[in-house]
Amino acid sequence: VSQQLKEEIRRGFAGLEDPLAGLLDILESSTDWKGKGHSLGYYITSELQLWMKEHPAVQQSGMKLKKLQTRVLRILAQCPANLLDPLISIYQLHTADRNYLLGHVSHLYHRGDYKEAAILSIKLKLQPDQDVEKMCMPLLFQDKINLMEDYVGEYPELQCKLLQILDTWCEPGFNIRDIARQYQGLSRYKQDKLNRKMLSKLVFRLLDRFNVDPALCPNVINQRHLRTLNYLFYKRFVEKTMTQENWTDHVQSTVGENQWLQGHLIQLLISYCDLNTAARWAQRCNMPKEILPNGVADELQKLKIQESVEEATKAENYEEINKKDYYQLPIPHANIHFLQKWEEMLQCWEKVLQPGQIVAIDMEWRPSFGMVGKPRVSLLQIAVKDEVFLLDLPQLLEQAEMEGEKEKLPYFIQMLYSDAAITKLGYGISGDLSSLAATCFALKGMDKQSQGVVDLLTVDKQVRGSRKVEQSYEDKGIRQPEKGLSLLVQHVLGKPLDKTEQLSNWEKRPLREEQIIYAASDAYCLLEIYEKLCKDPASFGLNSDLTKSLVGKPTIKARAKKQLNKQEVPSPCGQQCKGSEKETSRPPAPISAKEFSVVCDNMLQGLGRYLRCLGVDVRMLENEDDHRKAAEIARQEGRVILTSGLPYQTLQSQVGEGRCFSVNCSEKAKEQALQVLKHFNVHVTLEDIFSRCQ
């Protein structure tokens, strides 16, 4: 808006006896609301709001204000959304009689203006005094789901009520059309957009967003579990791609003690197996005889005490015969390392973080079968030539947490993914990184930091594009056609992957031998695919400059980082190695522990406590603090920042030279402290020890 217009508007206000009434006169006669962008009415209203701060005497009260509020409420029902907040503020609608406001919203509602009624209710915070079902259901029918979510967004009690209502609508036999008839103007809603499947998805999304206990929605949960059961039966008895042990484990955890699900399990067993198998499961679930079908109840009477292993034996023999038809891991079992302790991790660190190294990465997690929340990674597989490292992520993270060094593992993963000199192979990398971020908050945003990454899923699409027909492998005794990575392995290496362990419970310890072989194969096959594609890309329909086209070029930020690293290069251990001769020949002047003040990033709390014991003036970020807060404290209080990993690159640019130091995360707090003291030439005396401890 031009300065001239602003001045004209202000002169107009100054010349009016009652500027608030004058604004309403303008708005009531306004005709420019339906156009795009800000209207003249909006600019006049915004300018009045600013002008009133300089001239508080124009503010009205008592009966005069009430009359103005009555007029403005009529305008709010039809004005653009961007006028709501300024008008509510100018006419102090939050102080208006609550019953009067509720009555006005009710009038809009009964007129069929459901959206306008909801928006005004949110702005005036009227939700606690309204019926959540009455207000939200028309929004759902009108496909205004975001507005419905905003309506309950700040009220946990209303969130629970809304979820319970939606869950009721998901009951078998519930007729949604009957509800629609209750609301004016909603008889023509799109039935195909509002069905039980869509409602179920909505409920799960809201459970996740509002962090509500899923037990609040039994209908939706039971239906999802029933779909999981059907899927498990399909995988086991139709596709035949799931082992008996995996299948049993998942069926047990899905059904639990829920009698409704147990009943459906028995019906499925009768359909896919026989009465004897159904009776054994009824016995395993301790199901009362009176709720069992007659044939199953009779069979239960005949069962002997000893456990029959015939079916399991048959399954094992079938699987053993067919192993030769699948990709075989070409390295000895001794070269698969299952790592559960940080001390064991060091060998992996040294092998993997080598410039020029080619590393294949894969991850496994317990199948969620569509339940609430993102999957948390249970196993991280890292393969290099002739070796595979299986990282027990939950155990390693728990150990680091107990030792007060939870930053160790994230730092290693960050080093690996952000190093452009190391080629990282994966299949569907973005999904893997998303799951990593859900497992460890410190790894959030890794997808933006990654360099030197090759996603073989992209290559697979190119390879498939060059094929005229995708093969079916029934002639080789494999009942189902291969897909995904298994199909790429088949096409490039000659045999598909054995995916029978894919849906294992990867959280359960100890892992079975079959799981370990599967996990190692899933990662190692990527190395072999990459090697073969690089040797002869043309035979797979790929460009001859395969390596250049696969590895993404470093971004501008990455190139800037390379320039930076000529002076300060993070070594594999994390220490900032100074390349400047000037710095190595002239160490900083000695300083006493009492004079040395630092701020420790939240991943270095163990180091912070140790330095404080030595008499150093230490401030530590809390776990929930953003890393950038360290720079703010450092500037305000003249402290040195101690950090580690990727935050170093951000923080060191926000403070003076030499005021930010990256610490080696692979070492314990004592070694880290010695590193800091030596770098900054800090002298600790006996008097300093515990001098700051209460």
TrEMBL record:
Is Hydrolase one of the keywords?
yes
Specify whether Nuclease is a keyword of the entry. yes
- Disordered: region residues: 561-590
| Gene Ontology MF terms | 3'-5' exonuclease activity; nucleic acid binding
- Enumerate the spans annotated as 3'-5' exonuclease domain: 336-538
Among the Pfam families in the record, one is DNA_pol_A_exo1
Q: Which GO terms describe its biological process?
A: nucleobase-containing compound metabolic process
Keywords in alphabetical order, please.
Exonuclease, Hydrolase, Nuclease
> What PANTHER family does the annotation carry?
3'-5' EXONUCLEASE DOMAIN-CONTAINING PROTEIN, EXONUCLEASE MUT-7 HOMOLOG
What name does UniProt use for this protein?
MUT7 Exonuclease
Question: By which gene is this protein encoded?
Answer: Exd3_0
